[in-house]
Design goal:
- The protein is α+β, with helices and mostly antiparallel strands.
- The protein has 3 domains: 142 residues, Jelly Rolls (Sandwich), CATH 2.60.120; 42 residues, no CATH class; 50 residues, Homeodomain-like (Arc Repressor Mutant, subunit A).
- 40% of the residues lie in helices and 22% in strands.
- The chain is built from 9 helices and 10 strands.
- The protein has a 6-stranded antiparallel beta sheet with strand order 1-2-9-4-7-10.
- Helix 2 packs antiparallel against helix 3.
- The radius of gyration is 21 Å and the shape is globular.
Length: 267
């Protein structure tokens, strides 16, 4: 049995972490050579992307495969295994989602059809991974909501958008404006406004041409401009405008205005 600190077998690489994002219990990025998973089960929904190679696995006594642009979703508490389908192993990225994020009634549908062909959904999940790797959980939350909605739709159970007769985009904008510096989790906004999170993101993007997170970042940059012109030091500006730190401010300030905040002043 391997001991802590022992090197991984040749061809193996594993990164795993739990991000501070509601609904995600684990993120796993891994490369495996000849390793084969025995039959096992998780207590979370498994959303799998295979970036290189292919995986052969058994689910509910049926042989399945994961590869290419497929999005594979495996339900909680249903055993499966997994092994490389070729001699060169495989590379994968996995999101493990809280059981409550998808209704339990969808377990049967995911057992019957675990492989989803949808390039847009694949791209959404890939972007979620990218944002989680760079610790931008707020951006990941917007896209995760859209991805979960798409998964529900593929499994035959689209979520209800919310109460009729309400302007979801403008209601959300007003709520975000009250929380520009402190930030507001999408799940909290959805609960307060009584809309599905994905409906909020889609409505907001359709109305304003950007995601809620992008709106908040743009408003924080706007606030940072005022603080800079008032003579505040950049380290103070960053935190007072809602950014994690000065590099976080600099990255978004330069992306939006084309110059770093240190050069935003009267010549």
């Amino acid at each position: 049995m391997p001991r802590p600190g022992d090197p991984l077998p040749a061809g193996h690489r594993i990164e795993a972490w739990r991000p501070p994002l509601a609904g995600v219990v684990e993120v796993l990025h891994a490369r495996f050579g000849d390793h084969g998973y025995p039959m096992h089960a998780h207590d979370a929904w498994t959303v799998l992307l295979v970036d290189d190679g292919a995986v052969r696995y058994d689910l509910d006594r049926h042989e399945r495969g994961a590869y290419g642009d497929l999005v594979t979703i495996l339900p909680p508490k249903v055993p499966h295994n997994g092994v490389a389908a070729g001699p060169h192993g495989f590379r994968k990225r996995v999101l493990y989602l809280e059981p409550a994020l998808l209704p339990e009634r969808l377990i049967g549908a995911s057992v019957d059809t675990p492989a989803i062909t949808d390039r847009h959904l694949h791209g959404l999940i890939s972007e979620v991974h990218r944002f989680l790797r760079t610790h931008d959980e707020a951006a990941a939350e917007d896209l995760l909501a859209l991805a979960v909605e798409s998964l529900r739709t593929h499994l035959g159970d689209p979520a209800a958008p919310g109460p009729p007769g309400r302007d979801a985009a403008r209601d959300l904008r007003d709520l975000l404006e009250q929380n520009i510096v402190d930030g507001l989790p999408l799940s909290t906004a959805a609960a307060e406004l009584h809309f599905a999170p994905a409906h909020l993101v889609r409505s907001f993007r359709r109305e304003f041409g950007m995601t809620p997170h992008q709106y908040v970042i743009s408003r924080r940059v706007d606030l940072a401009r005022r603080l800079i012109l008032s003579g505040q030091p950049l380290q103070v500006v960053a935190t007072d405008a809602g950014f994690y730190d000065q590099p976080h401010l600099t990255r978004h300030f330069k992306r939006i205005l084309g110059i770093p905040p240190s050069r935003f002043h009267r010549p």
